[in-house]
């Protein structure tokens, strides 16, 4: 009987800790999403300012490469999914891969001309930061999901202790 009480106490303590962890992860996820939203808004604002400065025809989809554009090499960013060995959780990070190593990599901002307004550079940087914030939010979501699964498993164990 004493063993059951000790096990129950250990399970309840672990459940309390996991619940507090999940609440802090929820708060962190909300903060990251707010920062992501602000970063996107700032990027869009700088993009609008650049479009105003250069003219609406100089910053538009017309400057994007098409099928008839000359060949170029651009850097590609992909997500890598790594399993952490300590906790068994997954984490994501951005990996930059060059499409063709022998060709020079072109900066997409050059599609809009040689002398672009500083606002276009700011917009590009803000969107890059937004991507980083999104990856961090995904990692926090993954941790939260793992914590909630652990809480559910412990609740089942606790319920089974009272059935016996």
Describe this structure in words.
There is one protein chain. Helix content is 60%, strand content 11%. It is mostly helical. It has a single domain, classed as Orthogonal Bundle (Helix Hairpins). The protein has a two-stranded antiparallel sheet. It is elongated and about 80 Å long. 7% of the residues are buried.
CATH class descriptor: Mainly Alpha
Q: Could you give the order of the helices and strands?
A: HEEH
Q: Quick check: average pLDDT?
A: 83
In the CATH hierarchy, the architecture is: Orthogonal Bundle
Low-confidence regions: none
| General form | elongated
Distance between the termini: 12 Å
Largest beta sheet: strand ordering: 1-2
Estimated radius of gyration: 24 Å
CATH topology: Helix Hairpins
Number of domains: 1
Protein name: Vacuolar ATPase assembly protein VMA22
InterPro entries: Vma22/CCDC115 (IPR040357)
Organism: Molorchus minor
Describe this protein with a few key phrases.
mainly alpha, Helix Hairpins, 2 helices
Question: Briefly, what is this?
Answer:
This protein has 164 residues and is mainly alpha-helical. The chain contains two helices and two strands. The chain is 60% helix and 11% strand.
Which SSEs are present, and which pair or pack?
Blueprint: H1 2-54, E1 75-83, E2 90-98, H2 118-163
Antiparallel strand pairs: 1-2
